[in-house]
Amino acid sequence: MSYRSLTGKVVLNSGHSAGFESSLERDWLICLDFDPDVEAILEQPFSLNYQLDGRELRYTPDVLAQYRERDGRIPIVVFEVKPYDEVRLDFAKYRQRFKQMIRYCRERDWRFKIVTERDIRTPYLDNAKFLRKYRRLATQELYREQLLYSLRALGPTTPQALLAMAYLHVEKRMAALPELWRMVARREVSTELNKPLTMHSTIWLGIQHE
């Protein structure tokens, strides 16, 4: 912990880690890491030199994310992570560096995006923080098969109703719950991750991402 910021590293699903210099950057890294369409994350990926009022300045963006290939191309997005009030009140201070970064990204068919706590601190972040710890659990195959069988029979349902359908005894339901959350975390079971995740959330069969 420093005077002005929180520093540390987020361990990514790939096994690598990415550094952060504020809690807001940390939370954005968690959101990106939990997005199955994001294939690679780099913190402070490069620096850009530019001129302002006769001075040579240097700008390093916070994060670069490489997304899954779409239509034969690999989308790249460069992110600047800033508190909303800082962007709103001090935008003139950042205008030139952002203008240069937009130009730099356009030349490479990349995108540049500013994200604030309004984009980051959402139910999706809460769900990502909760589910990430289940993502690397070893599969409990017997529970998985029973839950999938019950979910196919029920169709869209809730975690509470699915467990009640799959198992008669409460002890078995509790034992199967980590496997259910692992399946949600791995997108084998889908839900609306932009809403708070509870035992009463709607869930349905999803597609597994490797």
UniProtKB/TrEMBL annotation:
Transmembrane segments: none annotated. Residues 119-191 form the TnsA endonuclease C-terminal domain. This is Heteromeric transposase endonuclease subunit TnsA. It comes from Telluria antibiotica. The keyword Nucleotide-binding does not apply. Keywords: Endonuclease, Hydrolase, Nuclease. Residues 35-117 form the TnsA endonuclease N-terminal domain. Coiled coil: none annotated. The keyword Nuclease applies. Pfam families: Tn7_Tnp_TnsA_C, Tn7_TnsA-like_N. One of its GO terms (molecular function) is endonuclease activity.
